[in-house]
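Fold this sequence, please.
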Amino acid sequence: MAENRPSASELLKKIQRETSQRGRLRVFFGFAAGVGKTYAMLQEAQELQQLGRDVLVGYVEPHDRPETNKLLQGLPQLAAKDVTYRGITLKEFDVDQALAIKPEIILVDELAHTNAPGSRNKKRYQDVEELLQAGINVLTTMNVQHLESLNDLVDDITGVEVQETVPDTVLKQASIKVVDIEPEELIERLAEGKIYAAGNARKALENFFSLDKLDQLRGLAIQRASDYINQAAVTNKVQTKLLTIVEDRFPKMGEKCIRWTARLVQGFGVDWTVVLVHSQNEPETKDASFLLDLGEKLGAETVTLEEDSSYETIAKYAELIQATDIVMGKRLNQKWYERLFVSDPEDILLEQLTDIEIHLVPYQEKGQKTKWWQELIPTGGWGNLMVTLLMVISATIITEILQWFHFGDQNQMMIYLVFVLITARLTNGYLWSGLASILSVLIYTYLFVEPRYSLVINRASYLITLLIMLIVALMVSNLVVRLKMKASSAMEREHQLEILYELNKRYVVATDNQEIYDTATSFLARLLKREIVLYSPETEIISHSPETAQTLQTKEEMGVAFWTGKNQREAGFGTDTLGGAKGYYLPVAAEGQTLAVLGILRNQQHNLENNQLNYLRLVTTQLAIVLEQSRLKNTQQEMRVENEREKVRSNLLRAVSHDLRTPLTSISGLAETLIEDEEQPNLAKATKVKLLQDVKDESQWLVRMVENLLSVTRINMDTMEVTKTPELVEEIAEAVLARSRKAYPEKQLQIDLPAEMLFVAADPILLEQALFNLIENGFRHGNQGTPVKMSISYQEPFVTFQISSQGQMTQQQYQKILHNLSSDDEIPVDSKNGLGIGLSIVKTIIKAHDGQLQVLQAGKETIFEVKILGEESSYEA
């Protein structure tokens, strides 16, 4: 419909309205506890309340400070929620109650606070995000040491690793008010016991609250606040693209690189990407998840590369995204053999990326590698051991047979090499193929090298041969294992691509949204081998995997899905929000609107790795695009129907306005002539009768035109359809004949009916009106004295009505009528010279019946042909 296609100004207003509906965040920012953040927040709350604003104190930390407690007086306060954890009752902010009350402004102290276990959200800033999403303005407090990107700097300054952090992205759209005092004054306040109790104050002065540390933290807070203010003021961003390279083998170095880049990004306001290098030969670790999560929290895009030649791949990726700067770590404690035999990553990149600057962040860290035996011994050890021993024994038996037939020694060695390759193919990991290589050399030396049944080697040439055999066996088996790993990874990716390809094919041929939903759930269930559920935004189950388990269909799980759809954030098991759920939930959203919620069974037995999570996000994005396309397609169809309705309305309006003019002008002129004759009689009686007869004829013409208009009201303008029933053609012809005799008693109408009984699917009144209009045209514009003929015939699947009249219309008139019948541009035709509104009515009626209308000329005869669908099962010969 027309309202589904907003103009650019309406879209802008919608965006502004949606933006205004989101609450505003105001952060009182300080460099240490006790600077007066909570005091300043409460002071502003008092001022806002005096201005008549709806202010509610959601939660304020109970520090028992007299000045702060005094400012709480007069402000409505929300009761804290009791949370029991390990026998201890903790007081927490009640976000549910705050959302239920929904004040205009709410105060929530300590943004970086970690909620008690069992709370809906793990962190308080996530509670605040819900409040903002609900349109509630929030005042909160925060210290600089809790900012995620500064975590390592604060550690270097204070020697304390802060555990409670807030992502930098939370502060990006916040207004920041820096609360600042001199460090000396803060130390005095601490010593006077205005911040902590005496015992705690003494410990703080000995550790955290030293003058030099406070000076550095103060400078850090002012600098960071300045960066946010400058970033908000700058409209033109610097044309820079940063790329940070980290490895999960060195998580500490990777963490430092990410934080260092985040600080740079905050200063310049540029885009950046974090690339995680993960070895194909190693399982995914928690360090990899931590680095990726950290990058996303700090506002970066994250990419994982699993390639042996990863830095060559990174070079190509950097060129692809047009990176201008690369940030990576530089290990200062590399082993001498690593420097001797392995090229430094930065050297590899410098050789291939001559136009990109590389920034090295120094760090000393040992690689987080597993023990050598853990790398070599994979799962299924006993089975692999049996396969290895069986292969070595088989090689020995075959070699013994070959020696019995006096084959050469070189052929015997090849037998062992072949079975080493078979071992590498049938087992997992490097250990078993390596063990097969060593056992093969030892057994061959013991059984087949002189002196036999001894490991003593008399000839030096045999020793060299055996060493070469061992080296070749180890190298070849290593290559086979690597090829197996690559093949396994390629198969997994191929399977994922196959799923995406099949999904796309199914989406293309899907006829409705339900088929799209069912396709997504069935394919994901096949890929992940677990329960999958799709919910509507109202938390109704719209599709689920064809499994008997209904773990995700309980009220509790539906509540998590509802929260995900409402807040458009991931939730459930494995996240910081509602982590006690049995499923993992992702929003399917497009243009800020939630279209569905995808639920996946997730627990310790059915965990999801990062590559699977990324794949799921890709699938949900694809699903959102398809659903949005489906919505646009439906909107387009509605707009097409609306345009058709508007076209009919405009055509009718133009035809009516044109056709009304002629008879009304004629009636007005005739009436004026008769009035003048009454004043000064000079007309003969016969002339007066003729004038009155003309008035009557014109009035009857107007009556028939009104009947035409009334007939159109029987058409449903929303769907351009009519209510069709099986109608006997003879009855319709009889009604048309009776009507024409009444309106034109002096005219002749000949109707040629078929021998068989025919039925048409039609609205009889509308079809009668359309046929009468065409017959009337023949009466008015055909040769006078000649009859108008209507013939009816059946040619599957149409019943054809042909109305013919003698008289050839002019070429101009013929072209106008043809143009009206073959195009969407309606050219009004004078009712006295053509069909006028009658043609528009006929076209509308026939189109509503899904019929066909065309005009033909055969010599001096004009033929209008109407085809209406006949019901095949309703006629008989």
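The two ends are 46 Å apart (CA to CA). The chain is about 50% helix and 15% strand.
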